[in-house]
Structure formats: C-alpha cells, structure tokens
Design goal:
α4 packs antiparallel against α5 (131-141). The strands form 3 sheets. A 4-stranded mixed β-sheet has the order 2-3-4-5. Strands 1-6 form a two-stranded parallel sheet. A two-stranded antiparallel sheet has the order 7-8. The chain has helices spanning 44-53, 73-78, 85-88, 102-112, 131-141, 144-151, and strands spanning 4-6, 37-39, 59-63, 66-71, 90-91, 94-96, 116-121, 124-130. It has 6 helices and 8 strands; from the N terminus they run ββαββααββαββαα. The termini are far apart. It has 152 residues and is of the alpha/beta class. The radius of gyration is 17 Å and the shape is globular. It has a single domain (26-151), classed as CBS-domain (Roll).
C-alpha cells in the first residue's frame, strides 16, 4: 500500500549547476501519460498482453482500489507466465507530486532502485515518470555552456 507522497525533500538535494531551486524543472513538466493500471490477481501472461496492447513496458498494480506496486520492464520479462502479478510486483512506498523537482525524483529513483514512480496530486493518480524521462529532460534543460564542458 502507498504510504508516502513526497513533494519537497526532507534533506536538501543540490540543484543543477547554475540553477536555483526555483529554476529547477518539476515532475509535471516531464511526466508521461499514466501507465496502465492492472489488478494484482491476474497472471503475468495477462499483464504482458496488457503491456503489449498498451505499448508500454511498465504497469501500475492495484488491489481493492489501493496502489500496491509496479511491474517494471525487468519484471515483465523475467516472471513466469502463471505467476500472479501481486507475487511479482515491486512495492511502491513513494509517490511523487507534480511539484517534485527532477533532481529529487532522480535521487529517489537511485535510492530506491526503481525505474519509475507514479505521480499523484492529492488522492488522484495523474501520471508517471520514468528515469529515462528524468534524464532526457535534465539533459535538454542544461545550459549550453555546461553541456559543452561535459562534452569536451
């Protein structure tokens, strides 16, 4: 079950070079559409079919109206067909808000070993954000001078 929604960090994560916390890009600017939500009682074979039909590699798992976990690409590929989704999911104890900074989102993904997080505004699930979304957006918003130094 989802226990915590994180907006502003409890400990300070340094902003991107040359940026202030007000300049930082927020999750709302980089999140993708909401990943499909599947019930925990279905088989992994059924979950793979849903992922293929929806052209996604990540599924959000619910049970009785509660968000209970996520099926990431690795799990979708490696779990047995007859296993139940609820037996294979990765628990989600953190849900980001649209105002969470991308720097904070990246730090949480690394800290918790997850490739994506759901994004909620109050009690409503509004989207999801993956590590690739975060990295792509951060790379495109870096100042050209810094990007040139990194490339050199």
């Amino acid at each position: 079950m989802l226990e915590l929604i994180i907006g502003q960090p409890k400990r300070r994560v340094p902003p991107a070079p040359g940026a202030t916390s007000r300049d930082e890009v927020r999750v709302a600017e980089a999140m993708t559409r909401l990943n499909p939500i599947v019930p925990g009682h279905i088989s992994m074979a059924a979950a793979r079919k849903i992922a293929a039909l929806k052209a996604t590699d990540t599924l959000i798992v619910e049970d009785k109206g509660n968000l209970i976990g996520i099926l990431d690409p690795e799990t979708l590929l490696s779990a047995g067909d007859e296993q139940r989704v609820s037996d294979c999911l990765k628990s989600i104890r953190i849900c980001l808000t649209p105002t969470t900074t991308l720097t904070r989102a990246r730090a949480l993904m690394i800290e918790h070993g997850l490739a994506s997080f759901p994004v909620a505004a109050g009690p409503f699930l509004v989207g999801s954000i993956s590590r690739s979304d975060v990295e792509r957006t951060l790379a495109s918003t870096r100042p050209p001078v810094i990007a040139a130094r990194v490339a050199a």
